[in-house]
Amino acid sequence: MIVFQFNFAKHIFPVFQKVFFAKRISILSPFLLYFYEMPVQRYIPSNPKKSAYIVGSTFLFLYWLIGFDGITFSDDVYYLLAGNKFWDGTMEFNEFHFSTRWGAYVPSGLIGFLFGFDPHRISMISLFSYLGTLYLVLKILPKDCNPWVLVTWMVTQVYLLHFLTKVYPDSLLVFWTILIPFSATFRSKKPFLAALGLISGLFFGFLTKETIVFLAPLPLVLFIFDWKRGNQNRRFYSFLLGLGLAFGVIYLGYFWIKFGSPFFHFRSIQEGHYPWEHSYYDKSAWVMLNRLTILPIVTFIERSYWLWIVFAIPGLLKIWRKPASPGVEFGLAFLSMIVLLWFMSTNFGFYNPLYLNPRHLIILIPVLAFLIALGWEEWRANQKLKRQLSGLILFGAAVSLIQQDWKMSVFQGTAFVLLYLFQGKKLVWATGIYLLFPALFAIQYQLKIKQYPTLIETLDRETSSSENPSLILTNNFLNFSKEVLLPENQIAQKLLFPIEKLDSIRLTPPPKLRVFIYDYYRHAYPKEQVDLDALEFWLKENYKLESELNEGNSSIRYFSKN
Q1: Which of 457, 435, 440 has its CA nearest to residue 18?
Q2: How far is Cα 259 from Cα 266, in angstroms, rounded to an integer?
Q3: pLDDT tens digits, residue range 494-529?
Q4: Contact partners, residue 60, CB within 8 Å, separation at least 6
Q5: Among the four residues 110, 343, 477, 493, which has the most C-beta atoms within 10 Å?
Q6: Range of the domain at 267
Q7: Which pTM was predicted?
Q8: What are the b/e assignments for 57-67, b being 16+ CB within 10 Å?
Q9: Contact, 457 vs 35, CB < 8 A?
């Protein structure tokens, strides 16, 4: 039972609030300060797992509450609108494979249907997914493992937290991914429920996003493992086969009846591939070789996944030396995911490995956190293994130095120092605080570069002004997102015009127009600079500037024709 008090909050918390949370957290200050000043045991039960879950889930909730920085103006726009249309009864399923990712937008759309169309509110579905995932991994964690280690590494990964406040299939897939190895651990004791849970994870995961196939080999690998050890678990595999066939027939049958082909969805995925900067099948052999060798490692280092993988190694070694449930299921799940993520093609017609978007990797975090907790005492008791982990950490820091990524090199170098500076429980708490800082800093960073509330306020004002109903030329990604930014206001939406379609108004330029530029494009969509340069050249030739207004990181300029 934890008996110390967080009295240091009297001195640290005000500074912490000013630096990281600014105005957003100020409304929570009295509550949090009061909570931190009191002994923790008044609020947290003595059961370590329950205590860890309460703290972890509370942190996730507060991060969701405070860390919302707006939409990403990308795929999330589609899922938000699709969910809204589904529950309005106007959603059309077509050849665009996103349209049949029901698991990605039906649950989130239900929240919008019940509580209103608000991106932050709708992102509660991601919070529910993470809370459910944390519950499952803690429940299955062996009693001799430290649940605080698991929670520390589960709830502090920057990208996992970034998508906590977003509506993306990847954040929902986190739950379905963990349900699969979790269910497999009960295959001997509860064969039917285990089979149902595993098939449900694969089935509903596939309805959410196709990358769940990274875990598709797990049942076969488990069967081979059980067969070699003489534990055939025939009832489990019989249920698994039967349920798999039943779910498969229902899924394929729907597409056969609806679209005339049971493989309609797979064909739409195939046809959805096209050459772009992050595809590999249309690039040189050198680019492909780089993707299959060095690039995954560099990506793990750049995107702060490297430490999670390094500290999961002792857990994998423990499983190798002494295979036991639930370690085996989670170890095999990780190996299945990492191998297919590294090598699997996203297309049946040609070889094209998955683009390593950091968003695609967040499904690894719960499994890695479990493996880290499983092997935490292994490397602490083995100095040789500790030195090997230290070497891998320094390797990551060196790669970051070569790339001149100073923040990441310091981040990983600090991990090396902590290994030798702290021991025992102090190391767990020091690691938690150390991992917490980048996660909290990310909130302030995103809030600063996006200034989303100011954007919405300025857009509302400009599009609702009856005195100046002129056309508004704006960023392409803002125009793409206008149904989310200006919901249920079609008149306002029609005023926005994307700069990429400038040619369509060159012949008949309007007498007056406004140019609304959101500076966030420099961070997220720098390629729009080409369209902006063309716009500036055209404006100089045809218009004169009447006035200009800056709101946050948005600029509005008013022009009249020469």
Answers
A1: 440
A2: 12
A3: 999 999 999 999 888 999 999 999 999 999 999 999
A4: 127, 130, 131, 134, 155, 164
A5: 477
A6: 12-38+48-450
A7: 0.90
A8: bebbeebbebb
A9: no
